[in-house]
Amino acid sequence: MIRRPLCVAVALALGMATVVVGASGDIDAARDRLIAALLGDTPLQADLEALSDRIGGRATGSEANRRAVDWADSRLREAGVDVKREGFTVPAGWLERTARAEVKGEGVQLAPAIVAMPYSAGTPAAGVSGPLLDGGRGGEADFARLGANASGAFVLITQDELADVDGLFREYTETAAIEQRARAAKVAGLVYMSSRAPGILYRHNVAIGAANTRPMVVMERNAATKVQRLLAAGTGLAITLHLDVAAPRDAQSENVIGEIRGRERPDEIVIFGSHLDAWDLGGGTLDNGANIAMLIDVARQMAKLGLAPARTVRFAMWNGEELGMLGSWGYVKTHAAELDRHVVAESTDIGCGRITGFFTGGRPDVVPVVDRLLQPLAGFGPFEQIDAPLVGTDNFDFLLEGIPNLVANQKPALYGPSYHASNDQMEQCDVGDLKLNAAVIGGLIWGYANDSTSLPRHTRTEVQALMDRSDLDDQMKTFNFWDAWEKGVRGRKP
Question: What does the pLDDT look like over 98-109, one tens digit per residue?
Answer without folding.
Answer: 999 999 999 999
